[in-house]
Amino acid sequence: MTSDPRAYPDRPYLAVSAAIIRDGRVLIAQRAKAGASQGLFTLPGGVVEAGETLHEAIVREVAEETEIAIAPVALAGHREFIMRDAEGRVQRHFVILCFAAHWLSGEGRPNEELAELRWVRPAEVDGLRTTEGLAEIVAAAFERIEAAGSGGS
């Protein structure tokens, strides 16, 4: 049907994302590529590759997308993204494990996948066009960072 193996999949794809915490703020990214999430703010991340642990995948994906180094702390939650076409067929299906992470280094910059990067306070997320459930995942990430006793810097 198409050369993109993620289009019209026969199974869900496992993906990871990171709520990167730095000085009381979280990094959000505005998606640039055409599709259901174009223009929406979300967390950086991507698909887990065969042979990768979840931590390896999130560290790699964040570095590839943003040029930022992170230290994953804990799972903050999950989201499911299922998109159907006009005939009701599953066009995309992702199960996304969202991690709370500390920022280590790098400032990040927009690229072909990300139109904009912003460091925002959790309360600012509600005023933006975001992927479903982003504010809840960000809140959970801050809770996981605090529970780990690492403060969020």
Task: Spell out the blueprint of helices and strands.
Blueprint lengths: L12 E10 L2 E7 L9 E2 L2 E3 L6 H13 L2 E16 L5 E16 L8 E7 L13 H14 L6
Parallel strand pairs: 1-6
Antiparallel strand pairs: 1-2, 1-4, 2-3, 2-7, 5-6
Question: Which features characterize this protein?
Answer:
alpha+beta, single chain, Nucleoside Triphosphate Pyrophosphohydrolase, 2 helices, seven-stranded mixed beta sheet, 153 residues
Your description of this structure?
- Strands 1, 2, 3, 4, 5, 6 and 7 form a seven-stranded mixed sheet that branches.
- The chain starts with 12 loop residues before the first strand and ends in a 6-residue tail after the last helix.
- Helix content is 18%, strand content 40%.
- The radius of gyration is 15 Å and the shape is globular.
- The protein has 153 residues and is an alpha+beta fold.
- The chain has one domain (13-147): Nucleoside Triphosphate Pyrophosphohydrolase (Alpha-Beta Complex), CATH 3.90.79.10.
- It has helices at 54-66, 134-147, and strands at 13-22, 25-31, 41-42, 45-47, 69-84, 90-105, 114-120.
Q: Give the fraction of residues assigned to helices.
A: 10-25%
- The string of secondary-structure elements, in order, is EEEEHEEEH
The CATH architecture name reads Alpha-Beta Complex
Write the CATH homologous superfamily. Answer: Nucleoside Triphosphate Pyrophosphohydrolase
Question: How many helices in DSSP terms?
Answer: 2
| Global outline | globular
Radius of gyration, in Å, reads 15 Å
Q: What would you say about this model in short?
A:
18% of the residues lie in helices and 40% in strands.
